[in-house]
Write a structure and sequence with these properties.
Number of helices: 13
CATH architecture of the largest domain: Up-down Bundle
Bound molecules: flavin-adenine dinucleotide
Largest sheet: 4 strands, mixed
Number of strands: 10
CATH class of the largest domain: Mainly Alpha
Strand content: 15-25%
CATH superfamily of the largest domain: Butyryl-CoA Dehydrogenase, subunit A, domain 3
CATH topology of the largest domain: Butyryl-CoA Dehydrogenase, subunit A, domain 3
């Protein structure tokens, strides 16, 4: 059993790889990709292929499947480190690393044999999960008594899906998906929905609009369209009608991974602010020598430290649930990290004065990027409601 807060040699080696990857592959192109006006063009296959070359893309696969079997603590460290260079790249990889873990834990042996090689053997293989749809967002997180509009009707040998999902990270790029649809008429989505495996090439499945986003532009989000899309019985994950249980059983670290992405970006904002305040002279001395400013930098440091500690705790507990799992850890870490990150990046913008508003310092990009996590992986208020129902 690994310790929650100690970085071991393997973790250090993996993080070194990520730091090199950030410096050589992501940092040189991030601002240029972000500036593309076409929402699809922010995404880079070259980044994914390079992540594959250095073993990052598949690192959560077990050794048997060709990875290193990275645990949740290590995975969150990697996601955080990637977030320091670009939050979109962090999200592309976080979705992939997380869902690769779930393919191994939630799928039957036959399902693994069929779907894991599709993902593993393609250097461009990334993964996506489709839950949200135009009419059903927070409802899923807080167990409201409404069904999905995306319906799967039972037919001979499988299910016929009709409907759509939207906002899906990697939606237009993935080659394997987990899709949630309503399979029991009149039941709520947490009682009558089902989780399906989907191969990108399935007939009746297509990609809709790629959303134009304020930030996080190196990741794509898209609609997924289903028109009489047939999925065989063998591709149901878990029990038909019990899709919600798949999320409860196999996604304990998901919220902390989201927290790690935004934490990485907030760390970049803090480090850049520290550097700026050491060099920028006003009132006859560097900004950092002004008490109000140095206290604010200290507060940024503290918020990052607490958010990181929370992510470590949640990911370690996710891998050691037999030692006592607190379900609120599937809601709180992202709320705390994104609120802290939002404070940090708005302070960072202010500390940079007028330059904080100009594209040239990169703080403006961080501000747009960090805003994504006030909304994604559950709106913060929604997650607080989810947690409150678990606690009270
Ligand atoms: C960048 C990004 C990436 C995403 N990636 C994915 C993905 O990969 N897969 C996926 O399935 N989804 C994804 N989403 C969708 C995301 O999870 C949803 O947008 C989010 O859950 C909110 O749902 P909604 O947009 O329908 O908002 P709504 O549910 O309409 O919420 C609107 C507001 O109402 C509040 N609210 C809702 N219900 C209640 C209530 N009962 N009581 C009080 N307040 C309430 C919410 O907190 C929020 O403030 C992504 C979203 C973004 C922005």
């Amino acid at each position: 059993m690994s310790e929650p807060f100690v970085i071991d040699e393997l973790q250090e080696a993996v993080l070194d790889t990520v730091r090199r990857f950030n410096a050589e592959v992501v940092a040189p192109v991030a601002a240029e990709l972000d500036a593309n006006s076409d929402p699809e063009a922010g995404f880079s296959w070259e980044i994914v292929e390079k992540a594959d070359e250095v073993g990052l893309r598949t690192m959560t696969l077990s050794e048997e499947w060709g990875g290193i079997g990275a645990d949740s603590v290590t995975t969150a460290m990697v996601i955080e480190e990637l977030g320091k260079a670009d939050i979109g790249v962090s999200v592309v990889m976080a979705q992939t690393l997380k869902l690769a873990q779930i393919l191994q834990s939630a799928l039957t042996k036959q399902q693994q044999d069929r779907f894991i090689p599709i993902f593993r053997d393609d250097p461009r293989g990334v993964l996506a999960i489709g839950i949200t749809e135009p009419e059903t967002g927070s409802n899923y997180f807080i167990r409201q008594d409404v069904p999905f509009h995306t319906k799967a009707e039972k037919v001979d040998g499988g299910w016929r899906i009709n409907g759509m999902k939207h906002f899906i990270s990697n939606g237009n790029r993935a080659n394997v998906y987990l899709i949630f649809a309503q399979t029991e008429k009149g039941r709520s989505l947490y009682e009558g929905s089902t989780c399906f495996l989907l191969d990108r090439d399935t007939e009746g499945f297509s990609i809709g609009r790629v959303h134009d986003k304020m930030g996080e532009r190196l990741a794509n989000n898209s609609e997924l369209m289903f028109r009489d899309c047939f999925i065989p019985d063998e591709d149901v994950v878990g029990e038909a009608g019990n899709g919600f249980q798949v999320l409860i059983d196999f996604f304990p670290a998901s919220n902390a991974y989201a927290a790690a992405s935004v934490l990485g970006a907030a760390t970049a904002a803090y480090e850049q602010s520290l550097e700026w305040c050491r060099n920028r002279v006003q009132g006859g001395k560097p900004l950092i020598e002004h008490d109000g400013i140095t206290a604010q930098l200290a507060e940024m440091h503290m918020l990052l430290d607490v958010a990181r500690t929370y992510v470590r705790k949640a990911t370690w507990m996710a891998d050691n649930r037999d030692l006592g799992w607190d379900p609120a850890l599937s809601a709180f870490p992202k709320v705390f990290a994104s609120q802290a990150a939002w404070k940090i990046v708005t302070w960072a913008s202010e500390l940079h004065g007028g330059s904080g508003y100009m594209k040239e310092t990169g703080i403006e990009k961080l501000l747009r990027d960090i805003a994504a996590f006030l909304h994604s992986d559950g709106v913060n208020r929604t997650l607080l409601l989810k947690a409150s129902r678990m606690i009270f």
